[in-house]
Write a structure and sequence with these properties.
- The chain has 388 residues and is α/β, with parallel strands linked by helices.
- It is built from 13 helices and eleven strands.
- Strand 1, helix 1 and strand 2 form a beta-alpha-beta unit.
- The longest helix is centred in the last third of the chain and has 21 residues.
Length: 388
């Protein structure tokens, strides 16, 4: 039996969403031997022992605006083809235990300032840690994508931010409220979304002052994974990419959120960012995101790549990627939470650029070639195991 003091909490912002529900149900299935670790990067052969928290030592909690209990959400995901038939019944106790640790998301209003909301989030995280005697907690944002944030002078420094919050100014989006609450609670932070999160200079300053690690942004699960893989191939072969255009069809809550052009802007920028970095030059073309409700939790991406070969001959590559977003994302969320928790345990602070392999727009590095990112991750994981 594991020592209770070694247990790690995972506090999910968006804890009743499809990704979070799949994370929790999937972890329970792994514990019970009902499923293998397919898709979990850090469980694959060849990965060194990084001393990561064991799956059996993970405890879940979080916030959400939704009220549907996790056992019911899991049944809905079975109906959508995301979870296997029969799984919710087999892991019902785990789902119910996690659901008991989900609190209503604090929402600033006339009676609650942004600072009050941050304090409420922090208090819930602290109480969660104390109830379960956890060694540490990792805060992971898997909530809906936010619009691009407008810059504000309060974002420039920790002092300016605190002054603005104390004055009741609206200077932090929800993702950044969770990032600040994580700092205040002494937690590592992971942003699996393209939202602002920790990318405000004042928050990065506070995280590094507190000696806390953080990672993000925007989990790389499908089309962008292919871009990060194919881009270096074109560059290495000296084939000049002229245009790269894509159309993404999304259902579910993520697709509904991205039906808002303001939210789509941050997602599209994150998805396209990798091309210039891996190809070494700008390319024509855009990413289009369309909401198709009937797709549910599934997504389809179609890309058209026009490239130039010897003597200027024009050629093209077309590909289609169709996948289940939650099934692709959930094992990566587990990887990231365990890696960030281990980094925190080892006293590593600041942006975890070594985890870029998991992200479309990673903090802490400009490296976007996926296999280079993978080797960096392996080296980092080996270091986590060797550190004293």
């Amino acid at each position: 039996m594991s020592d209770q003091r070694s247990r790690t909490g995972i506090w999910l912002a968006g804890a009743r969403g499809s990704v979070a529900t799949t994370v929790i149900a999937g972890t329970a299935a792994l514990r019970a031997g009902l499923a293998g670790p397919t898709g979990c990067v850090t469980e694959q052969p060849g990965f060194p022992d990084a001393g990561l928290p064991a799956v059996s030592d993970l405890v879940f909690g979080g916030h959400d605006v939704a009220c549907t209990p996790l056992p019911k959400r899991a049944e809905q995901l079975v109906a959508a083809g995301v979870l296997p038939h029969g799984l919710p019944a087999l892991v019902h106790d785990d789902l119910a235990a996690a659901d008991a640790e989900i609190r209503p998301a604090p929402l600033p209003d006339a009676d609650m300032s942004r600072l009050d909301a941050v304090e409420a989030i922090r208090a819930d995280i602290d109480a969660f840690r104390e109830r379960h005697g956890l060694a540490r907690v990792v805060v992971v944002n898997v909530s809906s994508t936010e619009p691009v944030l407008t810059a504000h002078p309060a974002h420039a420094s920790a002092g300016a931010l605190r002054a603005a919050l104390a004055a009741g100014e609206n200077v932090l989006p929800p993702s950044s409220q969770y990032a600040l609450a994580a700092i205040e609670a002494g937690c590592a932070h992971v942003d699996f979304t393209p939202s602002t999160g920790m990318r405000i200079p004042a928050l990065r300053e506070l995280a590094e002052e507190a000696g806390l690690p953080y990672a993000g942004n925007d989990g790389k699960t499908g089309e962008t994974l292919l871009k990060a893989t194919l881009g270096p191939m074109f560059a290495a072969r000296g084939l000049r990419v002229r245009t790269w255009s894509g159309t993404n069809l999304l259902g579910g809550g993520d697709g509904e959120t991205l039906a808002d052009p303001a939210a789509t802007a941050s997602k599209a920028a994150s998805k396209q960012h990798v091309l210039g970095k891996t190809l070494g030059h700008a390319v024509e073309g855009e990413v289009h995101i369309d909401y198709v409700p009937s797709l549910g939790d599934w997504k389809t991406a179609w890309d058209h790549v026009m490239f130039e070969g010897f003597l200027g001959v024009r050629m093209n590559l077309q590909f289609t990627w169709a996948g289940c977003d939650s099934a692709l994302a959930a094992p990566l969320v587990l990887d990231l939470a365990r890696l960030a928790g281990r980094a925190h345990e080892r006293g590593i602070s600041g942006p975890l650029g070594e985890l870029a392999f998991f992200f479309k727009d990673p903090v802490g590095t400009d490296e976007h070639a996926v296999m280079t990112q993978y080797e960096t991750l392996r080296t980092f994981a080996a270091g986590l195991g060797d550190r004293r």
